[in-house]
Amino acid sequence: MDTGDLSERHSRERFLLHGRADNILKVEDKRASLVEMQERLAAHELVSEARMVLLEGKRMSVGAVVVLNARGRNEAEREGVEAVRRELIKQLRVCYDPVLIPRKWRFVPLMPGNSMGKTEKAELQALFKEGH
Asked: Which stretches of the chain score pLDDT less than 50?
């Protein structure tokens, strides 16, 4: 049976769960597409680019990595980055249950990417490690 989860079998009775193979977020009984969430966020008037990433820890959560456009940078300078974050959360709450809204946010000048211009999940997750 395909559940969309990545796992590693250790024995007949034991396995290690590594997370989701797809980009579907499941928190409590709520589901959302991370791609759809990042597209909705990227459509905001203050945002140039956005990516969502699953963060593993004691419990699964979502991180948002955002590149602000010129208007967004001006707003962050004037009102503070926390005010911009609240505005973006407000945008997501129109469509998503509060448990699905990203708890951690990173505002970056450029979206991390490889030589082919693709953003790797590991690069995004690294932005949320301690020390960042």
From this structure: 1-8, 15-21
